[in-house]
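Input.
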Amino acid sequence: MARIQLELPERFLFSTEIPVLALHLNFTGHLDNAMVLAMVSEARIRFWQSLGQDPVDVHGVTLMAVDAAVQYRSQAHHGEVMVVEKAARDFHPRGLDLVWRLSERQSGREVARGKTGLLCVDLASGQVSTLPEPLRDQLLAL
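Output.
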């Protein structure tokens, strides 16, 4: 069976910590696959905030998730603290990808890795927009 292969950058721009809560667990007692994306979404909000941006209005656009790829690497359990790291890459005229890694803080064990494709949407019109130059410049300067 062919598996998704995701290469990670040498350096991440941002990291944040999120504990695994009871509500993140599936019926077998480990981190639910869907909750991985919920944690990554929370980390994306924190990432934009760390850059001084409103997550809904990033340099005049909303960055809408249009695709996601996840590669699960190990299980995580209640009480563990996940470190979510982010990096921007694959810039294109209407968006970019945020790649990420989810690791257990104490051991450094990689739990998952992935990428989220983001599309720029103009706040006023709701139409697809171009990637704002100030945003691209800000991310490339990190």
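The chain has a mean pLDDT of 96.
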